[in-house]
Amino acid sequence: MAHANVWNSRPKSYGKGARQCRVCAHRAGLIRKYNLNICRQCFREYANDIGFHKVKFIDITKEQRRPSFFFFFFLLNVDSHIFTLF
Predict the structure, then answer these.
(1) Are 39 and 26 in contact (CB under 8 A)?
(2) How many other β-carbons are positioned within 10 Å of the β-carbon of residue 21?
(3) Residue 76 lies inside a defined structural domain of this protein
(4) Which residue windows are transmembrane per the record (predicted)?
């Protein structure tokens, strides 16, 4: 039996060659998280149908922002003429 006949003679049960997209049977760019097994192109197409939705974060304006603790602590040290952060 020649080497060409033996090579890939059995189906793969492990590795990248064993997995494929359940929509288009593509093997690259596979999203396996949550057992989706969908390639990234099909995921973008069917994401809303599956239940994934984009979330928009609200930008906080400068008036609503509070200085962080470290910045506030640094200001206290500057006022007391100690220029360290500790």
Answers:
(1) yes
(2) 20
(3) yes
(4) none
